[in-house]
Amino acid sequence: MRRLLKISLQKPELAAGLLLICLIVFFQVMSQGVFLGVANMRGVLGLLPEMALVAIGVTLLMICGEFDLSVGSVFALSPMTLAVLMTMGWGFWPALLIGLLVCAAIGLANGWLTIRFAIPSFITTLGMLFMARSLTIVISGGFPPRLKTDEIPMWLFVEFVGPGNLFRASFLWFVVIAILVSLLLSRTNFGNWVRATGGFLPAANAMGIPSSTVKIACFMICSVLAGLAGTIQVLRIGSPLPSIGEGLELAAVAAAVIGGTSLLGGIGSIIGGIVGATLIRVIDNGMVLSQVNGNWFKFAIGALTILAVVGNSWLRKRGRAMKVETA
Amino acid sequence: MRRLLKISLQKPELAAGLLLICLIVFFQVMSQGVFLGVANMRGVLGLLPEMALVAIGVTLLMICGEFDLSVGSVFALSPMTLAVLMTMGWGFWPALLIGLLVCAAIGLANGWLTIRFAIPSFITTLGMLFMARSLTIVISGGFPPRLKTDEIPMWLFVEFVGPGNLFRASFLWFVVIAILVSLLLSRTNFGNWVRATGGFLPAANAMGIPSSTVKIACFMICSVLAGLAGTIQVLRIGSPLPSIGEGLELAAVAAAVIGGTSLLGGIGSIIGGIVGATLIRVIDNGMVLSQVNGNWFKFAIGALTILAVVGNSWLRKRGRAMKVETA
Amino acid sequence: MMTAAREANHDQPIISVRNLHKWYSGVHALKGVSLDFKRNEAVGLVGDNGAGKSTLISILAGLHPKDEGEIYVEGRPAEINRPRDAMNLGIETIYQYNSMVPNMSIARNLFIGREPLKASFMGVGLLDQARMRSESMEAIANVDLHLRSPDALVGELSGGQRQGVAIARAMHFKSKVMILDEPTNHLSVKETNKVIGFVKSLKEQNVTGIFISHNMHHVFACCDRVVAMALGKVVLDKPISETSIEEVHDVL
Amino acid sequence: MMTAAREANHDQPIISVRNLHKWYSGVHALKGVSLDFKRNEAVGLVGDNGAGKSTLISILAGLHPKDEGEIYVEGRPAEINRPRDAMNLGIETIYQYNSMVPNMSIARNLFIGREPLKASFMGVGLLDQARMRSESMEAIANVDLHLRSPDALVGELSGGQRQGVAIARAMHFKSKVMILDEPTNHLSVKETNKVIGFVKSLKEQNVTGIFISHNMHHVFACCDRVVAMALGKVVLDKPISETSIEEVHDVL
Amino acid sequence: EEKLDIVFAVHSSASNTFWQAAKKGYDDACAKVSANCQMLFTQTEGSVPEQLANLEAALAQKPAAILTSIVDNNALDDVIQRARDAGIVVIGVNVDDLEGAKGNARQAFVGQGFLAAGHSLGQAQAANFPAEGPIKVLVGISAPGQNWSEQRGQGVINFLEEYKASSGRDVSWEKIDSGTDLAITSDRVGAYLAAHPDTTAYFDTGFWHAGVARVLADRGEVPGKVLLGGFDLVPEAVEQMQKGYIQVEVDQQPYMQGFMPVMMVYLAKNFGLAPANVDTGQGIVKAADAAALMELAAKGLR
Ligand SMILES: Nc1ncnc2c1ncn2[C@@H]1O[C@H](COP(=O)(O)OP(=O)(O)OP(=O)(O)O)[C@@H](O)[C@H]1O
Ligand SMILES: Nc1ncnc2c1ncn2[C@@H]1O[C@H](COP(=O)(O)OP(=O)(O)OP(=O)(O)O)[C@@H](O)[C@H]1O
Ligand SMILES: [Mg+2]
Ligand SMILES: [Mg+2]
């Protein structure tokens, strides 16, 4: 029993989950029950998949030891490509495919540049952040094209489903993808290579892992997930604005770190990234319900974010200090 | 001779400097001589110190193995404190002092939280980014208070000085601070500790270096420099806007990295950070003079940033590959 | 024809190195090394610190690129650009440093890059975790190392335990050529003896061994030939039977 | 009074350890270790991999906190919370791993934390770089290590060269107590002999030595006493003169 | 005849749709008079220092005219003065110094100030306030600390204060940090509305209330139960106006704001006609006008 507790506390994603529950209870009380009400939950759960999909990709990439700051721009570029192609008369599916292929190409470029020239991915993807955003504006001419909603199978992406219409279809996408990527990371040899590559690159290389390929694959997965998330968001809000996703890069990295992913690579879990993204969304939403003054809003968000990580680290430390032989 | 070339090429800050010169020549041609003209140089050199001061602090901190994302907010908070105190009737000097003390306190908080709870500084300072920005807005009420320019010794900070009125006084501040921090890093035992702490923390600890103190000191220097830079900017533009410095955190990190500082700590130089900051300013200014279409502007910036680092890395590789016995 | 010719020539060296040069930025670490490793032979590679031993074997293992010279494996010119290439040619290496990922478990470390899969598609597949656990326990027991569980992280092991895991890995995946760079460092007496026994046993299993050590007693206990390097060059290359510890010490 | 009493009692151990316990998360690494180190004595600490030797000395060196037990230095209870505390008490350590910053030069590594200063203010001052260069060359030459220049980066050295620098550092800053955790690993024969000579010479210089090694020959060549550990406990503690290599092997 | 060099430096980034419409007007006008035109956006939305840096660089090129949005009362004074000293025509666009012509050396102003725009937005929406009961208003400050957002919000609040005093009704308001992202704004305001179902109206200082309209539709609220109003005519906002969720929208005719100054520069440089102030319209758009605007908006003309 104590052994189990110890093991759980030491897992950062579980500690973060515990904090998440505390926060939910806190906000539920603060908001006098509105927080977990259907109306609010529908809002939270509608937005969550978009953030969480980005966080999944970024977490995977960070475990692999690299950064992606371009996710926010890719988030905008992919749906913009889709919308522009559709106004040019393309069907939804081919346009979607091209949109995601563009993301994959950007991921490939990020990875290739980073590895070929041995430069930090921070710079490659920072440059790509600017470039992809610029492309988004260029292809749209600055104006959001109208989305031909009637030609799009909305029910597949954003219609409400499930009991009490609590979820959107995007939630299912998210769950499926989360499970797949989790399995990829924890149960396959590819996942093993990702961890080794991020954990200690010289050793990974020495043991014959194709670490460049692994990294490029992670870059591509990350970009494609960001593009998919952006597409879902655009379908939900109905307008492919060229400005969506700005600032998402830091939020996604923060989600990963809150969930226990190391900035140095090698450590982390997909579920941790998801918990982190949820935590960020819950804090944001809960603060509104708690009627924080507009000018203090950011302060509260910042403080709670730090608090969440401090709490997480503290719980882990408690866990480690428990004197139970586990091995 | 070849030996000297080899050694120079291997130094990232020198390679970056070489690229900087190439870029300057390029823009000079592209802009038909306007770039190096007095009018433009006055503009560039007037802005440079602000960005470069921030880059100096961030570079130092990164060499020490930590991040500071809160510089942009601190950049705004310090002058806002100054301005608000002055409207409350304080004199310039005490108000300036308090403004910088606030920065020092933020640096202290960043460092203490990071070390005490063993959490990534990415998160601490991300939280602080929000908190400091919020405080800026709160104390200003959202609107810039009037700066009592007549009570401020402007000549000490932003008046034009030097031959042909090419520089502002801020440039001298910047030069002096750059030299001091460079010396601190390269010629003192403190600098040695900074490098060791960032280079390999377990070894630094094992050798008895007070690495926590070193880190906290670097956090504080970084914050104070950011605050000073913000104050200079506000004195220059004459209005303590609560929104200045947004997005500065990534730019400062980019400057450091372009100048050869490692994201993992331990490697880098102050002059590299300055060259990096200059490169960013030059690219930005040069693009304006080259009349790039507004919608493609970001694309060009992103591409040039990547190119600068790729070029830097390539030059270093050339340098390393030169077969000359150096040792 | 070719094959027959090669088969016939059983004395042909399994690895030949000709005029190998290596520069590390400002250091000329290998200055024209030529060396043959015969089949089923255990070679002791000795030399002062910085002589270039690790450099030589890291080129053979594909970790560093060579600057000049040729490498022949079984008589054919070999391009070894990555560790994977060396592995495919049958060269297995234990490095002096950097051979484990600290944040991963022992079981995972043992199998990195060669995971047993239950099902796979285009090289990516489901791990056979049960097999990984059991085989890793076995591999570790084989080197007389007593570890708590295969799920402990390598970064939490003592220095010798870590080295033991590296040895276990190499012994588990033995190949045509085994390169061991100072494998007995950090190891306890018992395990050291296991390693020496292992090197001795390679011959019976038709495996060529390259054993780097500063301990001449170990080298003389298990090798057939000793090669001494100094300042990036080979300065002595004799069968054990024709030399002595003293002679080797003298040239170093 | 106090001083006189202490001076008188010259047999009083320089370091006493009582009932030391250490937990690493899920591992009970030290299970009640009690041990005395006398003045001017060279103690060999041996034991199987994972026995707890490094753990014990890292507690003495202030790298890890203890969980239970007392440490007395020169008879007084000592709080060793940081490596600096240990250094101030006169305990100097060479660790098995992690003792150098790879990205810094040899000269800087040698002096990290104890830089010679030309002028200083509140502990921060200008480095005396000329002195650092010359003293570091000297220190390195003292261990028979031949390095190109004191400005080379430690990360670019060979395994043995790196270890040599660590030894040079410890020999340069020798103190009341010297702890050496497997110092001869990676070292060439010549340097190994230097290290053994160094441990032997400690006695003449009134320094206590704690020497960890898996090589019993080395231990028996330079120590006065041998302490063997197994599974976190001390299992043997005898003067060299009263025991033999075989007896030690037997208890391990 | 030499081509006129004109530079348009604004405080906004290229991804802002409003300014893209202004750019279109600007580019079209430049083509008409064959001027050599450059539009300078900032990297960070709303960054005055970046705008200033762009202006400095533009000044070095000695263009014939500079167009700029004067978002701060002091920050741009010096550059504008120096430009004027160098014989450059300077026209304020979209936002002016709060002191108007006295505030700095710009020659003319095209557009409408933030404060005034906020005020007229409030005024227009007030017509839709329910006749009875307390009025509870939420004002979303999209970017706290940014002039454009704070001033627009303040304009709305100023109106509410006047309205409260003049009508004597129970009027209350709250400010939140509503964010500059459709998804974030809809989540935050959606949460607020869930907690305060009795809210009368929401004012956004940008166009992000369009996302809020979606939330209301998703919740099955009837259009008009919560009144929505904001700035700028993006297609999404127009669509929600057609559906009835958004009642009023401030449209300053960005195309015109980009177009007119170029003409003034042309006239000034070629014929010496003095640039004059142009009010690009109170620009209140109501649901009834929406259908007609849809087409124009999609073309970037409104
Ligand atoms: N990454 C590197 N960069 C620069 N120089 C290096 C690097 N690695 C090794 N060297 C240099 O190359 C030379 C040969 O090193 P190598 O590691 O091959 O020696 P070694 O024979 O294995 O020594 P040891 O017995 O100490 O392990 C040494 O002078 C060393 O300083
Ligand atoms: N950081 C750590 N986390 C968890 N367990 C650890 C850690 N460091 C050491 N251990 C465990 O503590 C025990 C003692 O380790 P220690 O390093 O003291 O052994 P040692 O006697 O020095 O062995 P060696 O001769 O192999 O160096 C081992 O079982 C090891 O697995
Ligand atoms: Mg070696
Ligand atoms: Mg040990």
UniProtKB/TrEMBL annotation, chains A, B:
Lineage: superkingdom: Bacteria
UniProt keyword terms in alphabetical order: Cell membrane, Membrane, Transmembrane, Transmembrane helix
GO molecular function: transmembrane transporter activity
Organism, scientific name: Kaistia nematophila
Primary localisation category: membrane
Spans through the membrane: 47-64, 96-115, 122-145, 165-185, 216-238, 250-283, 295-315
Coiled-coil segments: none
GO cellular component, one term: plasma membrane
Protein name: ABC transporter permease
Compartment annotation: Cell membrane
Signal peptide interval: none
Membrane topology: Multi-pass membrane protein
Pfam families the UniProt entry points to: BPD_transp_2
TrEMBL record, chains C, D:
Keywords: ATP-binding, Nucleotide-binding
Top-rank lineage group of the source organism: Bacteria
Pfam family, one: ABC_tran
Occurrences of domain ABC transporter (ranges): 15-248
GO MF annotations, alphabetized: ATP binding; ATP hydrolysis activity
InterPro entries for this protein: AAA+_ATPase, ABC_carbohydrate_import_ATPase, ABC_transporter-like_ATP-bd, P-loop_NTPase
Name of the protein described by the UniProt record: ATP-binding cassette domain-containing protein
